[in-house]
Amino acid sequence: MKHLTPEFATMKKRFPAGFESSLVLPCLRRIQEDRGFVADDDINGLAGFLGVPRIQIEEVLSFYTQFRRAPIGRWHLQACRNLSCTMRGAEGVIAHLGQRLGIVPGQTTADGRFTLSTVECLGSCGTAPVVMVNETYHEDMSPERLDALLESLAR
């Protein structure tokens, strides 16, 4: 995180004194963009830099599913499991992905290529079920569409 400190200092100048906690979210986002996840050392460093309690950063990390605390695979498959997606077959999508990849949600394949996660909502209810691969949405998923998607990522 140390190499990001100048960038964080620039952001900090835009806020009045006493509003350092407002920087937790954008700083965590930047750390994850840089490293791929947020490590314990990053949390300690950010708490020290911003002068906020560590628990405040932990709360943000545990609330937002976009943040990761450990490395993930090259392809991060996030399957929505909220009501709209569930009513349109999300459980089957999750089961199919798990079977094809040989993992369960929360795991990464042995080759480090795929990580499977479930998320509460991807905000695309009208095109459920939805799977997000890294930052790209794939909507109206079916077993056939999942197979084609996995084949395209395997290349």
Nutshell version of this structure?
Helices cover 46% and strands 12% of the residues. It has 7 helices and 4 strands.
Task: Tell me about this structure.
The chain has helices at 5-13, 24-35, 40-50, 54-63, 83-87, 90-101, 143-154, and strands spanning 75-80, 114-119, 131-133, 136-138. It has 155 residues and is an alpha+beta fold. A four-stranded mixed beta sheet has the order 2-1-3-4, covered by helices on one side. A hairpin with a 2-residue loop joins strand 3 and strand 4. Helix 2 (24-35) runs antiparallel to helix 3 and helix 3 crosses helix 4 (54-63). The chain starts with a helix and ends with a helix. The mean pLDDT is 93.
What is the CA-based Rg, rounded?
Answer: 18 Å
Strand segment count: 4
- Outline the biggest β-sheet: 4 strands, mixed
Low-pLDDT segments: none
The secondary structure category is: alpha+beta
Outline:
elongated
Q: How much helicity do the residues have?
A: 40-55%
Mean of all residue-level pLDDT scores: 93
Strand neighbour order, sheet with most strands:
2-1-3-4
Distance between the termini: 33 Å
* Continuous helix count: 7
Give me the strand/helix succession.
Answer: HHHHEHHEEEH
> What portion of residues belong to β-strands?
5-15%
